[in-house]
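pinging the channel bc i need a second pair of eyes. not urgent but kinda urgent?? the chain im working w is below, pasted from the shared doc
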Amino acid sequence: MSPSNAPTGPSADLSLERQVCYAMHTTVRAFDAVYRELLSEHDLSYPQYIALMTIGEHGPLTVGWLGELMHLDSGTLSPLLKRMEAAGLVGRARDPEDERRVVVSLTSSGRERLDALGDLPRRIAERSGLSRQELLDLHQTLREITERLDPHA
């Protein structure tokens, strides 16, 4: 349905095209497709990319803290880390200070893979067609929405 023949009146608020959540959903799907394409060149999934960036930025992390930073539960994170370890991207070891915790760190191969992804943000920005300022403004708006909707964010 085009905007010119979109519903008006009380039912207009229920129009799919007017739902912010739907606009965000379709945008996320479009971003996912671009990331999938660009990351496939590096044999990575988007969650693996995020994990590499997080570990690279913060250094060795406990699995629990990595999950907090990535907003993933252990049921999702553990299989992801197992695959990354099997691929030689990360290493996992018991924390010598607390054997109950597992620490994840980048391997040299993981660091090389992360370094090879340095131009990915620029490529994503180019594909979006947004200016640097528009991307910064969008990022800020999305962070504010997330903080308002998710008290744990």
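so The chain has a mean pLDDT of 90. and The chain is about 60% helix and 10% strand. — does that match what u expected or am i reading it wrong
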